[in-house]
Amino acid sequence: MLFSHDELEQTCSIVYDVLSPTPQINWPLLARRSGVDVWVKHENHTPIGAFKVRGGCVFLDQFCRQNPEATGLITATRGNHGQSIARAATAAGVNITVVVPEGNSSEKNRAMEAFGAELIVCGKDFDDAAQEARRLAAARNLSMVPSFHKSLALGVATYSRELFEAVTNLDTVYVPIGLGSGICGMITVRDLLGKKTKIVGVVSENADAYAQSFEQGQIITTKSARTFADGMACKVPQEEAMDVIWKGCERIVRVNEENIRQAVIALYQDTHNLAEGAGAAAFAALMKERDKMTGKRVGVVLSGGNIDLELFQKVISAQPI
Q1: In terms of Cα–Cα distance, which of 53, 91, 97 is closest to 72?
Q2: Range 207-210 contact pairs with CB under 8 angstroms and sequence separation of 24 or more
Q3: Which of these, 311, 319, 299, 230, lies nearest to 274 by C-alpha position?
Q4: Are 89 and 116 in contact (CB under 8 A)?
Q5: Cβ within 8 Å of residue 93, ≥6 positions away
Q6: Which of 47, 127, 238, 318 has the fewest CB atoms in 10 Å of its CB?
Q7: DSSP string covering 81-150, please?
Q8: Of 273, 303, 286, 276, nearest to 179 (Cα)?
Q9: Using one digit for the tens of pLDDT, what is the confidence trace for 36-95?
Q10: Backbone angles phi, psi at 98, to 5 degrees
Q11: Closest CA to 201 of 258, 282, 297, 261
C-alpha cells in the first residue's frame, strides 16, 4: 500500500481545513451520449480548477513541520501542480519558484504568478524544465518539490475517497495519468475500502510512456510527449507510481487527439463544464470503450478545467492545434 487508512484519515483533516469536497454528478446527457450510467468527479471545481490543489496543501503541511528553516521551494510543472504548490507555499509564507517549459499554457503561467510564484521558463518540455529546476535548487539552496511524492498522492486521494463514499457499486473508474498521483491514490483508496471497482488509466497516444511501461512490465521512456493534453505530457514514468499501477490497474487506454477534442466538446455541451485536455481524457476513454461498458455504473475523473481560451476556441472550431 502506498499509504494506510489512518494516514488517509489524517490527510482528510488537513485538506478539509482549507478546501471543500467536490461534487460527483450523474449527468443525463452524458449518459445518453455514452449509453452508460456515468458519474463525473468534478475536480475542476477546486480553487485552482484542478485536483492537484489537494496534494499541495498536504505537501506543504508536512514540509513546514519537517523543515522550519528552509529558504524556499522550487518545482517544475506544466501548470496545475505548480498552481497547487504556489498556492499552498504562499499561504504558508514560503518562497516558491516554478519552472515551466517554453510554450506552456499562458493562462496557467499567469495563475501561478498570481498565486505568488516566481516563474522561470526553460526547455522544450517538462523533463527539460525539471532538469533546470534541479540545477536551480542546488544553486539557490532551494528544496525541490517532486511531481510525484507520497504526500501529494495522499492529498489527491481524498477525491477518490469522496467518490467511493458518494457513489456505490462503481464497476469502473477512468483516471487520466500524468505522473501518477491521481491513479495511485484511486487504486490505494479502492483497496483500503475493500471495493471491487476496476481502475483504468488513460494516456494520450502521443504520450504513452505509462501505457508502454504497464504493458511491458518495465519502465519505458519515450522521446517525445506532444499532446495538447499537457497534463498527460509525460516521457519518463515514475517507478514508485508504476509499482502501484502494475499491481492495481486493470488496463491503460490510449486516446488520440481527436478523441480528447470530442470529449472536451461533449463535456461542455452536456454539462457546461470546461475541461482541459487531460481533464477530458477519462470521458474520451469511456467513449472509446462504451460498448463494453453498456449497463455498468462508471466513474470518470474530470481532473481539471484549465484550458486556455485560444486553445478552447481551436478545439470547438476544429482548427489545427
Answers
A1: 97
A2: 207/232, 207/233, 207/234, 207/235, 208/254, 209/234, 209/235, 209/236, 209/237, 210/177, 210/180, 210/234, 210/237, 210/242, 210/245, 210/252
A3: 311
A4: yes
A5: none
A6: 318
A7: HHHHHHHHHHHHT--EEEEE-TT--HHHHHHHHHTTPEEEE-SSSHHHHHHHHHHHHHHHT-EEE-SS-H
A8: 303
A9: 999 999 999 999 999 999 999 999 999 999 998 888 999 999 999 999 999 999 999 999
A10: -125, 130
A11: 282
Whether pTM exceeds 0.70: yes
Q: Which domains, and CATH codes, for the chain? A: 5-50+150-316 (3.40.50.1100), 53-145 (3.40.50.1100)
Overall residue count recorded for the chain in this entry: 321
Closest by CA position to 130, among listed 218, 279, 235: 235
DSSP class of 22: P
In the block, which residue shows the cell 522521446? 223
Hey, which residues does 173 pair with through a beta bridge?
199, 299
The secondary structure of 230-297 as a DSSP string is GGG--SS--HHHHHHHHHH-SEEEEE-HHHHHHHHHHHHHHH-----HHHHHHHHHHHHTHHHHTTSE
Q: What percent of the chain has pLDDT over 90?
A: 94
Apex 301 CA angle, 202 and 273, nearest 5 = 120
300 φ, ψ (degrees, to nearest 5): -130, 135
Written as nine digits, the cell of 180 is 501518477
Q: Is 219 exposed, middle or buried (0-12, 13-18, 19+ CB in 10 A)?
A: middle
- For the record, the C-alpha cell of 318 comes out as 476544429
pLDDT of residue 105: 93
